[in-house]
Amino acid sequence: MATGRPHRPATRSRGIPEATVARLPLYLRALTALSERSVPTVSSEELAGAAGVNSAKLRKDFSYLGSYGTRGVGYDVEYLVYQISRELGLTQDWPVVIVGIGNLGAALANYGGFASRGFRVVGLIDADPELAGRQVAGLTVLHSDELERVVEENGVSIGVIATPAGAAQQVCDRLVAAGVSSILNFAPSVLAVPDGVDVRKVDLSIELQILAFHEQRKAGENAAALPEPENGEVTPVEPPATAAVTRGRTDREGQPARPDGGPDSDGGTDSAPAVMPA
Amino acid sequence: MATGRPHRPATRSRGIPEATVARLPLYLRALTALSERSVPTVSSEELAGAAGVNSAKLRKDFSYLGSYGTRGVGYDVEYLVYQISRELGLTQDWPVVIVGIGNLGAALANYGGFASRGFRVVGLIDADPELAGRQVAGLTVLHSDELERVVEENGVSIGVIATPAGAAQQVCDRLVAAGVSSILNFAPSVLAVPDGVDVRKVDLSIELQILAFHEQRKAGENAAALPEPENGEVTPVEPPATAAVTRGRTDREGQPARPDGGPDSDGGTDSAPAVMPA
DNA sequence: GTATCTTTGTGCACGCGTTCACAAGGGCAT
DNA sequence: ATGCCCTTGTGAACGCGTGCACAAAGATAC
């Protein structure tokens, strides 16, 4: 998942919990599919199954929006689609700019999921003069100089950053200065923004690293469960050699020593050395 | 953030909280940057700033890994990089396959962030016979028929799905059957997997919809704060016409009526109609 | 009109995650 | 060696999110 990031005290005013907001698009997608199959009503149990969540959670989520169900029957699909769309703000048209038209930016520009839900790409922007003028996804790529103009002329409030990490903060600053107040950031960098600006981050590398963590633990479980040592002298759970062979992984070499002369917590227990990634 | 998804009771065994695991890659990135600048030590305050989190949270996160800091001084950068890398499993080599080499799949294949942290793309797979044989990011695209072979020969345990939604579940099933136990899913669909398989979802459309929700609320705040009505008859917070003009948005038309003959909760209060997205 | 059945909506309790605030601990100056 | 100062590590309190379990409410059959 893209990593969440708070920003405001939470969800204020009408007080729809952030966790619920994050699930609404999921429900909406499932409901849209039902709508296309002309299914008139759906129970919380069915819909929860389609969305991959617990039915109690779904009912509680909907209860924040109001009482849109009918006891003994379920929810009216069309009506619920409308209510959720409205709640999410999808009944409006949201002009979007994408900055950084590399592989990822081009992929985003071509992504059909945007247009289908009220999002309209109105500008593709790149710093490379070579790209300016090229056609991508039916739009002409503009040079960075045009960023402010495009944002202001189209009343853009949502910007997508798909530049390299080094350029992200600068692009972000310019977007914000031009009037953008919501940013979807694909660059692997932490963005500093003023109050009132929302940033959501999607980081492919982080997602993979989280998967690797769980994968490593799974591998460790298949081996004998080591007794837990006490007192901060942590015994690392290393995937045993058998697992490494089984799945064809290879460990690398080199390992920094503990900086001070203090006790090396890995002493004797960590037989699988490593080097830090670039 | 990419939307999280639980699956197992939480983080078991050595008990590093899931939320902490999700932040470790963030710390690692900041530490790597410091390492490249040859900074020897860093305080929790500095590092927290660079990672965009609270310093108390950072210290608590690190406390789950062990006592790696020095009071009065801070943390040794190199040593911490190593410890986090090891904890995340990045000291191993993780072969990865990417299925679905469209715009997004190609972008992922070219993404440098993979290789730099122990992830090695060993297979690009697509169902389109046209693509088979083409070179993408220095690798030859293989046809879907080869999926099982590539997974087994390389001992792949992490798979990336970048196919259209319709193909995702089938691809997922085949990956799992072939031995993959961690999946990063970019397709907008809910994947059903057996126990023991981890799925993380990255959904661009959902991220945008969450931004739209907050953006809509921001617009609503600038107008007069409506008094909250009681009794489930929810008065929608509609961005007033002034805001729409200011930012150049346009509302669409059409709105489903409430299914039963019951009270229309929007009666008189919701002047901004809408249509559901495709 | 009454009884029964189905499904919603929610009160409540529990657990995870965050934050505060401070004691413990190590360096450094004197 | 001693005392001061700085930063870590963590106990405790709080708040959010989840899931259970059930009462409320509408539909349906008779």
TrEMBL record, chains A, B:
<dbReference type="InterPro" id="IPR022876">
    <property type="entry name" value="Tscrpt_rep_Rex"/>
</dbReference>
<dbReference type="InterPro" id="IPR058236">
    <property type="entry name" value="Rex_actinobacterial-type"/>
</dbReference>
<dbReference type="Pfam" id="PF06971">
    <property type="entry name" value="Put_DNA-bind_N"/>
</dbReference>
<keyword id="KW-0678">Repressor</keyword>
<comment type="function">
    <text>Modulates transcription in response to changes in cellular NADH/NAD(+) redox state.</text>
</comment>
<feature type="binding site">
    <location>
        <begin position="100"/>
        <end position="105"/>
    </location>
    <ligand>
        <name>NAD(+)</name>
    </ligand>
</feature>
<protein>
    <recommendedName>
        <fullName>Redox-sensing transcriptional repressor Rex</fullName>
    </recommendedName>
</protein>
<keyword id="KW-0520">NAD</keyword>
<dbReference type="GO" id="GO:0003700">
    <property type="term" value="F:DNA-binding transcription factor activity"/>
</dbReference>
<comment type="subunit">
    <text>Homodimer.</text>
</comment>
<dbReference type="GO" id="GO:0051775">
    <property type="term" value="P:response to redox state"/>
</dbReference>
<dbReference type="GO" id="GO:0005737">
    <property type="term" value="C:cytoplasm"/>
</dbReference>
<dbReference type="InterPro" id="IPR036291">
    <property type="entry name" value="NAD(P)-bd_dom_sf"/>
</dbReference>
<dbReference type="InterPro" id="IPR036388">
    <property type="entry name" value="WH-like_DNA-bd_sf"/>
</dbReference>
<keyword id="KW-0238">DNA-binding</keyword>
<dbReference type="GO" id="GO:0045892">
    <property type="term" value="P:negative regulation of DNA-templated transcription"/>
</dbReference>
<dbReference type="GO" id="GO:0003677">
    <property type="term" value="F:DNA binding"/>
</dbReference>
<feature type="domain" description="CoA-binding">
    <location>
        <begin position="89"/>
        <end position="190"/>
    </location>
</feature>
<feature type="compositionally biased region" description="Low complexity">
    <location>
        <begin position="256"/>
        <end position="278"/>
    </location>
</feature>
<dbReference type="InterPro" id="IPR009718">
    <property type="entry name" value="Rex_DNA-bd_C_dom"/>
</dbReference>
<keyword id="KW-0804">Transcription</keyword>
<feature type="DNA-binding region" description="H-T-H motif">
    <location>
        <begin position="26"/>
        <end position="65"/>
    </location>
</feature>
<dbReference type="InterPro" id="IPR003781">
    <property type="entry name" value="CoA-bd"/>
</dbReference>
<dbReference type="Pfam" id="PF02629">
    <property type="entry name" value="CoA_binding"/>
</dbReference>
<feature type="region of interest" description="Disordered">
    <location>
        <begin position="224"/>
        <end position="278"/>
    </location>
</feature>
<dbReference type="InterPro" id="IPR036390">
    <property type="entry name" value="WH_DNA-bd_sf"/>
</dbReference>
<comment type="similarity">
    <text>Belongs to the transcriptional regulatory Rex family.</text>
</comment>
<keyword id="KW-0805">Transcription regulation</keyword>
<keyword id="KW-0963">Cytoplasm</keyword>
